[in-house]
Amino acid sequence: MPPNAVITGWGMYAPQRILTNQDLARMVDTSDEWIVTRTGIRERRIAADDETTTTLSVYAARDALAVAGLDPTELDLVIVGTCSPDYPLPATGVLVARDLGATRAAGFDLQAACSGFLFALATGSSFIRSGMYRNVLVLGVEVLSRFLDWHDRGTCVLFGDGAGAVILSASDQPGGLLGLELFSDGTGAEGIIVPAGGSACPASPQTSAEGGHFIHMSGADVYRYATRQLAESTLAALRSAGLGVDDIDQFVYHQANLRIIKSVGKQLQIPDEKVFVNIEKYGNTSAASVPMALVEAVASGRIKQGDRLLMAAFGAGYTAGAAVVEWTADPLQAFRAPGAQTRLGKPRSAGAATLGETAADEEAALPEVAAAG
Ligand code: UT7
User: Fold this and answer.
1) End-to-end Cα, the chain, rounded Å
2) DSSP state of 43
3) Helix or strand or coil: residue 354?
């Protein structure tokens, strides 16, 4: 029998700086009322100037390692699901392994946009089930604030920065990944795209001047596709697990838009109390959104040992991923383990301030944001 890949550790990190809807209303032609009604978002976190996708990853990963009771040297593999890496090369996964002291681990990045964590979870599970590795660190991490046009109200109000991590470990006990669906459809490539900076359109002064390195999105098209595809991916993952909607204890969806989550819940007749939502605090953190929601769902007591979860995401490509997971860990382990406590879904510092309250020099630290004002 191949080993099962069960989640033994989990952690998250949300940067301290909070950007509220009111802050955004001072920067672009928008309002708190529009953003809350159309998306459910009230605020999002923005990485500090000295923070990167690697540094966010390391915070989340250290907590996940502490919960699992693992030393970094016991990791065999580090997979970072991200579309906002530190560099086009080298891979963020390599830098994360270096900074963690995961000296035995191979590291790489996996790009499936907002579905990146689900694709990385599937990949990590496969390495464990094949017998090749015993402990895999799977991350979903983004610093999308560096890829936003802070003059474009259609995108800048939606996204935020953050990191979520799980440790997958080999186990002879039942549990872990029960069902999976990965999906992609390249006909939607233009739906969400950073058009420049790759081989199709290399970086140049012109691409920079034209905003080609920012995220461009056809919101309404993406919305329509996402509501349908998330429901279909959910059902496909359930079929692959041999389960139905009623067999799932908690649904942890990609936090892109509260209306999308509600629409999927309605289509599938999922009771509201089984659907975890934290979009109001973080906005759309792309690949980080599902693992951050998972960590907060566990910390809030909504996930218990033996529960079955369905995690699903949708993103650029288009891509979608859905996984049915049996949760085998003791949720209280997160409270007992030593560490920074970010895994409990709290900011690293209780003194996190809103952008409006920060000192002038901190405000200046967001050059594009400040310029847009
Ligand atoms: O992570 C996965 C990928 N992303 C997504 O899943 C995002 C999917 N799309 C969405 O969530 C929604 O389409 C949005 C939230 C982006 C937009 O909501 P919508 O209800 O689809 O609005 P819309 O794009 O149809 O725009 C409606 C109006 C437009 O004005 P007019 O043409 O009716 O006068 C927009 O210009 O709202 C305007 N608008 C805004 N108004 C105030 C667009 N953005 C804003 C804004 N503030 N931030």
Assistant:
1) 60
2) E
3) strand
- Phi, psi of 207, rounded to the nearest 5 degrees: -65, -35
Determine the distance separating the centroid of ligand 1 and the alpha carbon of 116, expressed in angstroms. Answer: 23
Name the token pair of 43: 């605020």
Residue 151: CB atoms within 10 Å = 15
The H-or-E segment that residue 177 falls in is strand 176-184
Question: Is 254 in the active site?
Answer: yes
- pTM exceeds cut of 0.85: yes
Q: Is 18 in the pocket of ligand 1 (CB under 6 A)?
A: no
- Residue 233: name the closest of 130, 317, 306, 300 by CA: 317
**Dist CA 327 CA 298 (whole Å):** 10
pLDDT in tens, 59-80: 999 999 999 999 999 999 999 9
The strand pair at 77-81 and 135-143 is best described as parallel
User: Tokens standing for 210?
Assistant: 């034209």
In degrees and rounded to multiples of 5, residue 36 shows phi and psi of -65, -45
Indicate which atom in ligand 1 lies nearest the CA of residue 286. 1
CA 222 to centroid of chain Cα atoms: 18
Tens of pLDDT, residue by residue over 2-37, are 999 999 999 999 999 999 999 999 999 999 999 999
For the chain, how big is the Rg over CA atoms in Å?
Answer: 19
Between helices 219-241 and 258-267, what is the axis angle to 10°?
40
pLDDT single digits (tens) 301-338: 999 999 999 999 999 999 999 999 999 999 988 877 77
**Low pLDDT (below 70) residues in the chain:** 339-373
Residue ranges of domains in the chain, CATH in brackets: 4-345 (3.40.47.10)
